[in-house]
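Raw record, unedited: Alcohol dehydrogenase, propanol-preferring
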Amino acid sequence: MKAVYLPGNRKVEIRSVAIPVPGPDEVLLEVKASCICRSDLSLYYGNAVVGGDAAGGCITGHEPAGVVVETGVAVKNFKPGDRVAVYLAVGCGVCARCRQGNFHLCPTWKCLGFTKDGGNAEYLAVPERNLLRIPASMSYVAAAISTDAFGTLYSACRKLGLSGATSVGIWGLGPMGSAGILAAKALGARVVALDPIAERRHFADELGADLTLDPTDTGAAAAIAAFSGGEGLSAAIDCSGNGAAQNMALDSLAPLGRAAFVGESRETTIRPSEQLIRKQISLIGSWYFGISEYEEIIRTIETHKIDLERLATHRFAIDEAETAFRLFDERKTEKAVFVF
C-alpha cells in the first residue's frame, strides 16, 4: 500500500509498504479520508511536537476515518463494513487516565502519525477501543474533521462553559479556529474571530462569526470592548500559539472570565498579576477530547446540522502529498484532506 512519511526539512515521501496485520484486539481499516493538521508541520519541518527525536519514522496522519475490513480474534463490538473515525491517542487501556477515557493523558500513550503508524495510508490497524462509530449520514471527510479539529474545539468550548449567555474571542482562524466558530455558535455563544489574514476573516464571516477583526489593527481592542458592552469577553480561545495573541486574549477578558490555550507553542510570557490574579481569570490548556465526549460531539453536529465539509477547502489524492503539505504550509488551504 502507499503511505506518507515526513522525514523533516520539508520533505515528503510516498513509500510502498506492507498492509498491516491487525492484532487480536485490533481492526484493519480501509482509510477513506485523512486530514492534515497544523501540528503535522512540526514533522514536516523536523521538530515534532509529539515524540521529539523519536518521531518521523511513522506513517503520518492522526485524523483518519474509514471502513472496517478485518477484525482481530478478540474484537467484539465492530465488524467488517462498519464506518468509523479514529481516536488519535493509543493508551495502555488500564491506567486511571485510560479508564477515564483520556487516552491522550496516559503516561505511556502513543500518537497516531507521530509515534505510531497513522492514517495517511490506504490501510490502518488500530485497537478496537480507539474506534468512533459515525452516523450513516456522515461523510468520511466530515468524520475525519469531527475528531481533532471539531472535537478538540468543542471540548474546549464546553470546558469554558459557553452558552447563549456568553461571548468568546477566538484567535487564529486556521482549521482549528474555524472549527471553534462552529462549535461556539452551536452552543449559543456570540463569537469574535481574529486573524491577520483577510481571507480567513472572510471565511469566518461565512461560518457565522458575529464580529471579525484583524488583531494587529490598532483599533481591535476597542472593537472587542464595544462588542462586549465595555465589560470584556466571557471567554477566550487561542488557536494560534502566538504570544501576542495569547496576551491579547487574556487582556480581552472580563473579570472571572475563562481562557483556553489550544494552539501549540513551546514558551510564552504573560503578566499573571494583571491578567490573571486581579481579574480572577481561569486559564486552562485544552488538548484533544476525552473519548467519552464523542457521542455528544456527534449529537451536536447532527442536531445543529453542522456542515464540517465546509472546512475542507482542498482535497488531495495520496500521490499529491508533496503538493498538499506545501500548500498547507503556505496557508493556501484551510483543512486539507487526503481522500482515498
